[in-house]
Amino acid sequence: MDLVYTDVMIDVQRGHAPVLSWFAGLADLPAVPGLVVMELVDEMARYLDAAGFQVEEIIERPPYPDVEHQSRRAYIFELKPS
Q: Rounded to whole angstroms, what are the CA distances from 2 to 23, 26, 27, 32, 50?
């Protein structure tokens, strides 16, 4: 099993062509460690904060068995001040 770390996932989020090409050529999806997921959620919260939003809540949860793809979920609830 291959592991993917934060720098690779950030390149995926940014649409970096060489990484997207590498990802598309994989036979199996790599695993993403929990620490990487937390770093990505934190990065997205910082982007939203820089855009003037205020963090209300961040929720991370496991998938619902037999209903969703078996990967963790993260939700960031933000408010835009008036």
A: 11, 10, 11, 9, 33
For residue 75, give the nearest of 62, 57, 63 by alpha carbon. Answer: 57
Averaged pLDDT of the chain: 87
pTM above 0.90, yes or no: no
The span from the CA of 77 to the CA of 60, in Å, is 11
Cβ 23 vs Cβ 12: under 8 Å: yes
Give the single-character DSSP code of 27.
Answer: S
* Contact present, 37 and 74 (Cβ < 8 Å): yes
Task: Give which of 41, 52, 37 is closest to 75, Cα–Cα.
Answer: 41
Place of tokens 């770390």: 5
Query: Looking up tokens 């003037």, which residue turns up?
Result: 52
Phi, psi dihedrals of residue 20, rounded to the nearest 5°:
-60, -40
Query: What's at 75, amino acid-wise?
Result: Y
